[in-house]
Protein: Denylate cyclase
Amino acid sequence: MNEGDGLQLSPGTGQEPSEAVSAIDGESTRQMLELIDRIQDRNQGELDDAAIMAISDACCVSPEYVRVTANRVQQGRRQDLKHKLKSISLALDPQDRRFVMSGLLGSTCALMTVLQAVTGDQYAVFGTLGLIGLGSALWNVALSQTARVATFSGAIFGLLFFISRSVFSMALHADLAFESVWLVPFVLGGALGGLVLQNVVAANRQRLGLKDPVQERQELLRQLVDLQERLREGEQSLTFLSLDIVGSTKMKEVADPLSVEFTFTEYHKFVEYAAHKFGGRVHSTAGDGVTCAFSDPQAAYQSARFIQAGLVELNTLRNKIGVPIQLRAGIHSGAVVAPHGQDVTKINFAHVIDVASHLQKLSPPGGIAVSEAAAAQLVGGPRAVSDHVVEAEGYRMYVWQQRRIVPEAVSEHEGPPLSTPPKAPPFELGPST
Structure:
Protein backbone atom coordinates (compact mmCIF):
# COMPACT_ATOMS: atom_id res chain seq x y z
CA MET A 1 0.00 0.00 0.00
CA ASN A 2 1.48 3.32 -1.05
CA GLU A 3 1.54 6.40 1.14
CA GLY A 4 -0.32 9.53 0.01
CA ASP A 5 -1.44 12.83 1.40
CA GLY A 6 -2.70 12.95 4.97
CA LEU A 7 -6.39 13.32 5.75
CA GLN A 8 -7.46 15.64 8.55
CA LEU A 9 -10.72 14.60 10.19
CA SER A 10 -12.75 16.55 12.67
CA PRO A 11 -14.82 15.18 15.57
CA GLY A 12 -18.42 14.26 14.74
CA THR A 13 -21.38 16.51 15.23
CA GLY A 14 -23.70 13.95 16.74
CA GLN A 15 -25.67 13.37 13.54
CA GLU A 16 -27.29 10.06 12.72
CA PRO A 17 -25.11 7.45 10.97
CA SER A 18 -24.86 8.01 7.26
CA GLU A 19 -26.59 5.89 4.69
CA ALA A 20 -23.29 4.32 3.73
CA VAL A 21 -23.07 2.55 7.09
CA SER A 22 -26.80 1.96 7.45
CA ALA A 23 -27.78 -1.68 6.99
CA ILE A 24 -31.43 -1.07 6.07
CA ASP A 25 -31.08 -0.69 2.30
CA GLY A 26 -28.14 -3.05 2.23
CA GLU A 27 -30.23 -5.75 3.91
CA SER A 28 -33.01 -5.47 1.32
CA THR A 29 -30.49 -5.61 -1.51
CA ARG A 30 -28.71 -8.60 0.02
CA GLN A 31 -31.97 -10.51 0.40
CA MET A 32 -32.97 -9.64 -3.15
CA LEU A 33 -29.67 -10.91 -4.56
CA GLU A 34 -29.94 -14.12 -2.55
CA LEU A 35 -33.50 -14.73 -3.77
CA ILE A 36 -32.60 -13.99 -7.39
CA ASP A 37 -29.68 -16.40 -7.18
CA ARG A 38 -31.72 -19.17 -5.56
CA ILE A 39 -34.62 -18.89 -8.03
CA GLN A 40 -32.28 -18.77 -11.04
CA ASP A 41 -30.45 -21.86 -9.80
CA ARG A 42 -33.77 -23.64 -9.36
CA ASN A 43 -35.08 -22.62 -12.81
CA GLN A 44 -31.87 -23.14 -14.81
CA GLY A 45 -31.05 -19.42 -14.83
CA GLU A 46 -34.53 -18.17 -15.77
CA LEU A 47 -36.51 -15.52 -13.91
CA ASP A 48 -39.98 -14.77 -15.24
CA ASP A 49 -42.29 -11.82 -14.60
CA ALA A 50 -44.20 -13.53 -11.81
CA ALA A 51 -40.95 -14.26 -9.95
CA ILE A 52 -39.77 -10.67 -10.44
CA MET A 53 -43.02 -9.28 -9.00
CA ALA A 54 -42.88 -11.71 -6.08
CA ILE A 55 -39.28 -10.73 -5.26
CA SER A 56 -40.33 -7.08 -5.48
CA ASP A 57 -43.08 -7.65 -2.90
CA ALA A 58 -40.92 -9.79 -0.63
CA CYS A 59 -37.97 -7.35 -0.52
CA CYS A 60 -39.95 -4.09 -0.68
CA VAL A 61 -38.15 -2.84 -3.78
CA SER A 62 -39.50 -1.76 -7.14
CA PRO A 63 -39.93 -4.35 -9.94
CA GLU A 64 -37.71 -2.21 -12.19
CA TYR A 65 -34.89 -2.44 -9.64
CA VAL A 66 -35.28 -6.24 -9.52
CA ARG A 67 -35.18 -6.41 -13.33
CA VAL A 68 -32.04 -4.31 -13.60
CA THR A 69 -30.30 -6.26 -10.84
CA ALA A 70 -31.27 -9.64 -12.30
CA ASN A 71 -30.05 -8.51 -15.72
CA ARG A 72 -26.68 -7.47 -14.28
CA VAL A 73 -26.36 -10.78 -12.45
CA GLN A 74 -27.03 -12.62 -15.71
CA GLN A 75 -24.50 -10.49 -17.59
CA GLY A 76 -21.85 -11.53 -15.08
CA ARG A 77 -22.35 -15.18 -16.03
CA ARG A 78 -21.37 -17.02 -19.18
CA GLN A 79 -24.54 -17.57 -21.22
CA ASP A 80 -25.54 -19.07 -24.53
CA LEU A 81 -27.55 -17.09 -27.09
CA LYS A 82 -30.87 -18.37 -25.78
CA HIS A 83 -30.24 -17.16 -22.23
CA LYS A 84 -28.84 -13.85 -23.43
CA LEU A 85 -32.02 -13.18 -25.41
CA LYS A 86 -34.07 -14.27 -22.40
CA SER A 87 -32.19 -11.82 -20.17
CA ILE A 88 -32.72 -8.96 -22.60
CA SER A 89 -36.41 -9.81 -22.82
CA LEU A 90 -36.92 -9.97 -19.06
CA ALA A 91 -35.16 -6.63 -18.63
CA LEU A 92 -38.18 -5.04 -20.33
CA ASP A 93 -41.44 -4.25 -18.59
CA PRO A 94 -44.05 -7.01 -19.38
CA GLN A 95 -46.27 -4.52 -21.20
CA ASP A 96 -43.40 -3.18 -23.32
CA ARG A 97 -42.22 -6.72 -24.03
CA ARG A 98 -45.65 -7.68 -25.37
CA PHE A 99 -45.69 -4.61 -27.62
CA VAL A 100 -42.20 -5.42 -28.95
CA MET A 101 -43.17 -9.03 -29.65
CA SER A 102 -46.31 -7.91 -31.51
CA GLY A 103 -44.23 -5.65 -33.73
CA LEU A 104 -41.60 -8.31 -34.44
CA LEU A 105 -44.19 -10.96 -35.23
CA GLY A 106 -46.11 -8.55 -37.47
CA SER A 107 -42.95 -7.83 -39.45
CA THR A 108 -42.09 -11.54 -39.61
CA CYS A 109 -45.53 -12.48 -40.94
CA ALA A 110 -45.27 -9.72 -43.55
CA LEU A 111 -41.85 -10.98 -44.69
CA MET A 112 -43.13 -14.55 -45.03
CA THR A 113 -46.10 -13.33 -47.08
CA VAL A 114 -43.85 -11.41 -49.49
CA LEU A 115 -41.37 -14.29 -49.83
CA GLN A 116 -44.26 -16.64 -50.56
CA ALA A 117 -45.41 -14.37 -53.40
CA VAL A 118 -41.91 -13.84 -54.84
CA THR A 119 -40.79 -17.48 -54.81
CA GLY A 120 -44.10 -19.16 -55.51
CA ASP A 121 -43.47 -21.20 -52.35
CA GLN A 122 -43.84 -24.55 -54.08
CA TYR A 123 -43.13 -26.45 -50.86
CA ALA A 124 -45.21 -24.17 -48.61
CA VAL A 125 -42.19 -23.32 -46.44
CA PHE A 126 -42.84 -19.59 -46.16
CA GLY A 127 -46.58 -20.13 -45.86
CA THR A 128 -46.03 -22.49 -42.94
CA LEU A 129 -43.62 -20.10 -41.24
CA GLY A 130 -46.10 -17.29 -41.74
CA LEU A 131 -48.86 -19.30 -40.07
CA ILE A 132 -46.56 -20.10 -37.15
CA GLY A 133 -45.79 -16.40 -36.79
CA LEU A 134 -49.49 -15.53 -36.91
CA GLY A 135 -50.29 -18.16 -34.27
CA SER A 136 -47.51 -16.83 -32.04
CA ALA A 137 -48.86 -13.30 -32.45
CA LEU A 138 -52.38 -14.41 -31.49
CA TRP A 139 -51.01 -16.23 -28.43
CA ASN A 140 -48.92 -13.21 -27.44
CA VAL A 141 -51.98 -10.95 -27.59
CA ALA A 142 -54.31 -13.43 -25.88
CA LEU A 143 -52.06 -13.74 -22.81
CA SER A 144 -52.09 -10.00 -22.11
CA GLN A 145 -52.91 -9.19 -18.49
CA THR A 146 -55.36 -6.39 -19.36
CA ALA A 147 -57.73 -5.60 -22.22
CA ARG A 148 -55.88 -2.34 -22.83
CA VAL A 149 -52.54 -4.09 -23.40
CA ALA A 150 -54.22 -6.66 -25.67
CA THR A 151 -55.87 -3.91 -27.74
CA PHE A 152 -52.62 -2.02 -28.24
CA SER A 153 -50.70 -5.23 -28.97
CA GLY A 154 -53.19 -6.19 -31.68
CA ALA A 155 -53.08 -2.70 -33.17
CA ILE A 156 -49.26 -2.78 -33.26
CA PHE A 157 -49.34 -6.16 -35.00
CA GLY A 158 -51.69 -4.83 -37.70
CA LEU A 159 -49.69 -1.61 -38.13
CA LEU A 160 -46.30 -3.33 -38.46
CA PHE A 161 -47.72 -6.03 -40.72
CA PHE A 162 -49.06 -3.43 -43.17
CA ILE A 163 -45.94 -1.24 -43.14
CA SER A 164 -43.48 -4.17 -43.33
CA ARG A 165 -45.45 -5.83 -46.14
CA SER A 166 -45.23 -2.65 -48.20
CA VAL A 167 -41.52 -2.17 -47.51
CA PHE A 168 -40.59 -5.80 -48.24
CA SER A 169 -42.74 -5.80 -51.40
CA MET A 170 -40.90 -2.73 -52.67
CA ALA A 171 -37.49 -4.15 -51.75
CA LEU A 172 -38.12 -7.57 -53.34
CA HIS A 173 -40.21 -6.26 -56.26
CA ALA A 174 -43.26 -8.29 -55.27
CA ASP A 175 -46.60 -7.57 -56.89
CA LEU A 176 -48.48 -7.09 -53.61
CA ALA A 177 -49.56 -3.48 -53.77
CA PHE A 178 -51.85 -2.12 -51.07
CA GLU A 179 -53.71 1.15 -51.02
CA SER A 180 -52.62 3.30 -48.09
CA VAL A 181 -56.23 3.61 -46.99
CA TRP A 182 -56.08 -0.05 -45.92
CA LEU A 183 -53.77 0.92 -43.05
CA VAL A 184 -56.71 1.97 -40.87
CA PRO A 185 -58.65 -1.31 -41.24
CA PHE A 186 -55.49 -3.31 -40.50
CA VAL A 187 -54.85 -1.36 -37.28
CA LEU A 188 -58.49 -1.41 -36.14
CA GLY A 189 -58.84 -5.09 -37.03
CA GLY A 190 -55.74 -5.95 -35.02
CA ALA A 191 -56.97 -3.94 -32.03
CA LEU A 192 -60.42 -5.53 -32.09
CA GLY A 193 -58.99 -9.01 -32.55
CA GLY A 194 -56.63 -8.52 -29.60
CA LEU A 195 -59.46 -7.34 -27.36
CA VAL A 196 -61.71 -10.28 -28.25
CA LEU A 197 -58.93 -12.85 -27.84
CA GLN A 198 -57.90 -11.51 -24.45
CA ASN A 199 -61.47 -11.63 -23.13
CA VAL A 200 -62.01 -15.17 -24.41
CA VAL A 201 -58.79 -16.48 -22.86
CA ALA A 202 -59.36 -14.64 -19.56
CA ALA A 203 -62.81 -16.24 -19.26
CA ASN A 204 -61.50 -19.74 -19.99
CA ARG A 205 -58.11 -19.83 -18.26
CA GLN A 206 -58.91 -22.88 -16.18
CA ARG A 207 -60.27 -24.84 -19.14
CA LEU A 208 -57.19 -23.97 -21.18
CA GLY A 209 -54.91 -25.15 -18.37
CA LEU A 210 -53.45 -21.68 -17.78
CA LYS A 211 -52.41 -20.54 -14.32
CA ASP A 212 -54.24 -17.66 -12.76
CA PRO A 213 -51.70 -14.77 -12.44
CA VAL A 214 -52.87 -13.86 -8.94
CA GLN A 215 -52.63 -17.44 -7.67
CA GLU A 216 -49.25 -17.93 -9.34
CA ARG A 217 -47.94 -14.79 -7.70
CA GLN A 218 -49.20 -15.89 -4.27
CA GLU A 219 -47.54 -19.27 -4.71
CA LEU A 220 -44.25 -17.61 -5.61
CA LEU A 221 -44.54 -15.31 -2.60
CA ARG A 222 -45.01 -18.35 -0.38
CA GLN A 223 -41.89 -19.95 -1.86
CA LEU A 224 -39.94 -16.72 -1.39
CA VAL A 225 -40.98 -16.51 2.25
CA ASP A 226 -39.74 -20.08 2.72
CA LEU A 227 -36.46 -19.16 1.03
CA GLN A 228 -36.06 -16.11 3.25
CA GLU A 229 -36.57 -18.23 6.35
CA ARG A 230 -33.93 -20.67 5.13
CA LEU A 231 -31.55 -17.79 4.39
CA ARG A 232 -32.03 -16.39 7.88
CA GLU A 233 -31.03 -19.75 9.33
CA GLY A 234 -27.50 -19.05 8.08
CA GLU A 235 -27.52 -15.42 9.22
CA GLN A 236 -25.11 -14.49 11.96
CA SER A 237 -23.54 -11.37 13.38
CA LEU A 238 -19.79 -11.17 12.78
CA THR A 239 -17.06 -8.60 13.23
CA PHE A 240 -14.34 -8.19 10.63
CA LEU A 241 -10.86 -6.80 11.21
CA SER A 242 -9.14 -5.48 8.09
CA LEU A 243 -5.36 -4.99 8.19
CA ASP A 244 -2.90 -3.61 5.67
CA ILE A 245 0.76 -2.60 5.71
CA VAL A 246 1.59 1.08 5.23
CA GLY A 247 3.92 1.75 2.30
CA SER A 248 4.55 -1.90 1.49
CA THR A 249 5.51 -1.15 -2.12
CA LYS A 250 8.39 1.10 -1.05
CA MET A 251 9.46 -1.44 1.55
CA LYS A 252 9.82 -4.11 -1.13
CA GLU A 253 11.77 -1.78 -3.39
CA VAL A 254 14.61 -1.33 -0.88
CA ALA A 255 15.03 -4.96 0.16
CA ASP A 256 16.11 -8.16 -1.53
CA PRO A 257 13.38 -10.69 -2.44
CA LEU A 258 14.43 -13.29 0.14
CA SER A 259 14.22 -10.78 3.01
CA VAL A 260 10.83 -9.61 1.76
CA GLU A 261 9.52 -13.18 1.50
CA PHE A 262 10.74 -14.07 4.99
CA THR A 263 9.47 -10.90 6.67
CA PHE A 264 6.01 -10.91 5.11
CA THR A 265 5.59 -14.63 5.81
CA GLU A 266 6.43 -13.98 9.46
CA TYR A 267 3.96 -11.10 9.48
CA HIS A 268 1.13 -13.30 8.15
CA LYS A 269 1.95 -16.00 10.70
CA PHE A 270 1.84 -13.40 13.47
CA VAL A 271 -1.57 -12.07 12.35
CA GLU A 272 -2.96 -15.60 12.13
CA TYR A 273 -1.69 -16.34 15.64
CA ALA A 274 -3.22 -13.14 16.99
CA ALA A 275 -6.59 -13.91 15.39
CA HIS A 276 -6.69 -17.44 16.85
CA LYS A 277 -5.58 -16.15 20.25
CA PHE A 278 -8.82 -14.16 20.57
CA GLY A 279 -11.16 -16.72 19.05
CA GLY A 280 -11.07 -15.48 15.46
CA ARG A 281 -9.73 -16.77 12.18
CA VAL A 282 -8.18 -15.40 9.02
CA HIS A 283 -11.00 -14.85 6.56
CA SER A 284 -8.97 -13.89 3.50
CA THR A 285 -5.71 -12.41 2.28
CA ALA A 286 -5.11 -10.14 -0.68
CA GLY A 287 -1.51 -9.12 -1.25
CA ASP A 288 -0.31 -7.57 2.00
CA GLY A 289 -3.83 -7.13 3.33
CA VAL A 290 -5.42 -9.57 5.76
CA THR A 291 -9.06 -9.78 6.86
CA CYS A 292 -9.95 -11.63 10.05
CA ALA A 293 -13.40 -12.68 11.26
CA PHE A 294 -14.55 -12.70 14.89
CA SER A 295 -17.77 -13.57 16.66
CA ASP A 296 -17.91 -10.25 18.52
CA PRO A 297 -16.33 -6.75 18.36
CA GLN A 298 -14.51 -7.10 21.69
CA ALA A 299 -12.42 -10.01 20.42
CA ALA A 300 -11.64 -8.17 17.17
CA TYR A 301 -10.58 -5.01 19.02
CA GLN A 302 -8.40 -6.94 21.48
CA SER A 303 -6.77 -8.79 18.60
CA ALA A 304 -6.10 -5.52 16.76
CA ARG A 305 -4.50 -3.97 19.86
CA PHE A 306 -2.43 -7.12 20.36
CA ILE A 307 -1.23 -7.00 16.76
CA GLN A 308 -0.30 -3.30 16.91
CA ALA A 309 1.60 -3.86 20.17
CA GLY A 310 3.27 -7.01 18.85
CA LEU A 311 4.80 -5.14 15.93
CA VAL A 312 7.56 -4.02 18.31
CA GLU A 313 8.79 -7.59 18.70
CA LEU A 314 8.08 -8.46 15.05
CA ASN A 315 10.12 -5.52 13.77
CA THR A 316 12.93 -6.12 16.27
CA LEU A 317 13.42 -9.85 15.82
CA ARG A 318 11.81 -10.99 12.56
CA ASN A 319 11.82 -8.03 10.19
CA LYS A 320 14.78 -8.47 7.79
CA ILE A 321 13.80 -5.70 5.39
CA GLY A 322 15.32 -2.82 7.34
CA VAL A 323 12.12 -0.75 7.28
CA PRO A 324 9.64 -1.10 10.17
CA ILE A 325 6.23 -2.55 9.45
CA GLN A 326 3.33 -0.25 10.30
CA LEU A 327 -0.30 -1.26 10.03
CA ARG A 328 -3.65 0.36 9.49
CA ALA A 329 -6.65 -1.46 10.95
CA GLY A 330 -10.41 -1.15 10.49
CA ILE A 331 -13.18 -2.92 12.43
CA HIS A 332 -16.88 -3.19 11.61
CA SER A 333 -19.73 -5.44 12.79
CA GLY A 334 -22.84 -6.57 10.95
CA ALA A 335 -25.05 -9.43 9.84
CA VAL A 336 -23.85 -11.86 7.18
CA VAL A 337 -25.24 -15.06 5.68
CA ALA A 338 -22.71 -17.87 5.55
CA PRO A 339 -23.32 -20.84 3.23
CA HIS A 340 -24.62 -23.72 5.31
CA GLY A 341 -24.63 -21.27 8.22
CA GLN A 342 -21.07 -21.95 9.30
CA ASP A 343 -18.24 -21.46 6.79
CA VAL A 344 -17.35 -17.77 7.10
CA THR A 345 -14.46 -18.07 4.65
CA LYS A 346 -17.04 -18.47 1.87
CA ILE A 347 -18.43 -14.99 2.55
CA ASN A 348 -16.82 -12.70 0.00
CA PHE A 349 -19.24 -9.91 -0.87
CA ALA A 350 -20.80 -8.89 2.45
CA HIS A 351 -21.29 -5.17 3.07
CA VAL A 352 -19.72 -5.48 6.52
CA ILE A 353 -16.40 -6.58 4.96
CA ASP A 354 -16.41 -3.63 2.57
CA VAL A 355 -16.98 -1.17 5.43
CA ALA A 356 -14.17 -2.69 7.53
CA SER A 357 -11.82 -2.42 4.55
CA HIS A 358 -12.78 1.21 3.94
CA LEU A 359 -12.30 2.14 7.60
CA GLN A 360 -8.87 0.53 7.46
CA LYS A 361 -7.93 2.85 4.61
CA LEU A 362 -9.07 5.86 6.65
CA SER A 363 -7.13 4.78 9.73
CA PRO A 364 -3.83 6.51 10.60
CA PRO A 365 -0.61 4.45 10.46
CA GLY A 366 -0.44 2.44 13.65
CA GLY A 367 -4.11 3.15 14.36
CA ILE A 368 -7.38 1.24 14.61
CA ALA A 369 -10.58 2.73 13.17
CA VAL A 370 -13.64 1.16 14.83
CA SER A 371 -17.08 1.78 13.34
CA GLU A 372 -19.77 3.26 15.53
CA ALA A 373 -21.75 0.01 15.33
CA ALA A 374 -18.80 -2.07 16.55
CA ALA A 375 -17.63 0.43 19.19
CA ALA A 376 -21.07 0.48 20.81
CA GLN A 377 -20.71 -3.25 21.62
CA LEU A 378 -17.28 -3.01 23.27
CA VAL A 379 -16.79 -3.41 27.00
CA GLY A 380 -16.83 0.19 28.19
CA GLY A 381 -18.48 1.35 24.99
CA PRO A 382 -16.89 3.71 22.47
CA ARG A 383 -14.78 5.32 25.21
CA ALA A 384 -12.72 2.15 25.28
CA VAL A 385 -11.40 3.30 21.89
CA SER A 386 -11.53 7.09 22.00
CA ASP A 387 -13.43 9.97 23.62
CA HIS A 388 -14.60 11.46 20.34
CA VAL A 389 -16.43 10.24 17.27
CA VAL A 390 -14.70 11.00 13.99
CA GLU A 391 -16.35 11.47 10.60
CA ALA A 392 -14.74 10.94 7.20
CA GLU A 393 -16.20 10.23 3.77
CA GLY A 394 -19.61 9.55 5.27
CA TYR A 395 -18.36 7.11 7.91
CA ARG A 396 -18.59 7.60 11.69
CA MET A 397 -15.87 5.89 13.68
CA TYR A 398 -13.78 5.92 16.84
CA VAL A 399 -10.02 5.90 16.29
CA TRP A 400 -7.46 4.39 18.60
CA GLN A 401 -3.99 5.72 17.83
CA GLN A 402 -0.58 4.50 18.87
CA ARG A 403 1.22 6.93 21.14
CA ARG A 404 4.67 6.11 19.85
CA ILE A 405 6.24 4.98 16.62
CA VAL A 406 7.32 1.37 16.39
CA PRO A 407 11.10 0.82 16.61
CA GLU A 408 13.18 0.54 13.49
CA ALA A 409 13.49 -2.95 12.11
CA VAL A 410 16.77 -4.76 12.42
CA SER A 411 18.23 -5.64 9.04
CA GLU A 412 20.92 -8.21 8.56
CA HIS A 413 23.60 -5.48 8.55
CA GLU A 414 22.33 -3.12 11.22
CA GLY A 415 22.74 -2.84 14.94
CA PRO A 416 20.08 -2.52 17.66
CA PRO A 417 17.10 -0.26 16.87
CA LEU A 418 16.70 3.22 18.29
CA SER A 419 13.37 4.02 19.96
CA THR A 420 11.54 7.27 19.12
CA PRO A 421 8.91 8.33 21.66
CA PRO A 422 7.16 11.45 20.23
CA LYS A 423 3.37 11.41 20.36
CA ALA A 424 1.16 11.69 17.29
CA PRO A 425 -1.82 14.08 17.05
CA PRO A 426 -4.86 12.24 18.41
CA PHE A 427 -7.23 12.75 15.44
CA GLU A 428 -5.05 13.32 12.42
CA LEU A 429 -5.73 10.26 10.34
CA GLY A 430 -2.92 9.20 8.13
CA PRO A 431 -2.53 8.70 4.44
CA SER A 432 -5.43 7.08 2.71
CA THR A 433 -4.65 4.47 0.13
